[in-house]
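User: structure tokens for this one?
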Amino acid sequence: MGRITEDLIRRNAEHNDCIIFSLEELSLHQQEIERLEHIDKWCRDLKILYLQNNLIGKIENVSKLKKLEYLNLALNNIEKIENLEAGCEGLTKLDLTVNFIGELSSVKTLQHNIHLKELFLMGNPCADFDGYRQFVVATLQQLKWLDGREIERSERIQALQDFPVVEQQIREQEKAYCLKRAKDKEETQRKLQEEENEGEKEGRHTGFDGRWYTDIGATLPSSEESKDDVQAPEIQEGECKKKKLDNGEDDLEFWNKPSLYTPESRLETLRHMEKQRKDQEKLSEKKKKVKPPRVLISENGRALNVNEPKLDFSLRDDEKRNQIVLDLAVYRYMDTSLIDVDVQPTYVRVMVKGKPFQLVLPAEVKPDSSSARRAQTTGHLVVYMPKVGEVITGCQGMSKPVKSTADSSREQTDKRSQQMERLEVDPSKRAFPDVANIVQEKRHTPRRVQAEPKIMPSEEDPDFEDNPEVPPLI
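Assistant:
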């Protein structure tokens, strides 16, 4: 049963940023809704409301929609026009196409909707009554259009003149329809009761696996039988096919069975479709259970290579680090919690979303020292598995033999002769040549013409005078 929920309204209110209290237009068509509820409390500003192609049986809970202008209830199970006169004063268009309205006199309740201009009643039982159009035109004088046809002024005058006679005809036809409708309801109720009784009998005599038992406790299959069922998927698959054929025959019989077009028949069709869908889901679940589990270890204990998730991978032997590296192309955006890695001495197993990837290793590894990580760019899973055994590098493990003094001195001279002698360079100096001084290393002072030496007068010279005010010559 479909119900109007807050989540349903929000999902259909994307054009209003999922805000429901200020909604002006709402479409809830084809939602299998059986009852009209909650909308008048949550969406009081609605102007347009689409509820066509549902299973609504009664017009209700719309009295608070004061701003409602257009209401579409086509293809539902409505049998009477009601509950629109109290609160929907602004209603201008009402669509009740293809419903089950047989009480044509119920249109009188729309006389209070003074702004109603368009009404659609085609496809209802009342639309087949003699004098149907004249009755509606005379009853609802505010109407401008009926069933998509404009109401002429002359047509309304004629309908008002013939109204007493037409009203009497409509009442008689309504009475006959109501009697027929009551008989149809009784017949439908009786058939429904018979089907329920048959279902109870089947439930009383059948076990959980579909077999017939007189005493469930005495004859239920043992654990060995159930184990045999698991080990024989072909038998279960045959039973599934048989049930599918039986369901197909029942489905064909249901659709070929003649039935009246009534609200009950629409509901019965819906229930049948729901039952069919549930049976299909059960069959698919059984098929999943029938599928045998993937064999990862053979009977003799040998691990098998399995790639059920169908992922690309590469396995390389890193001799430098003495380890085996597995690069598994896991989906980039898959969550790491969905990956489970199990490293064993002879094989590695990776569960990706429940699907096993298993690979036999070319050498024995150390599970305790192994590690795994995800690549940040590609999302690949990289597993590092150190190999068992010591690493042999150079001659570190070999013992040095005892040599004589002569041999050692000879080896030292040979080593010296083999070594290249290089000039020592002061590390404080620059390692590259000084380009500025590459040509001229010594600075030569420019030659100057030497002046002739002056003859300083001595104190013994008779012409010498010592003036104390004159500073001494340097």
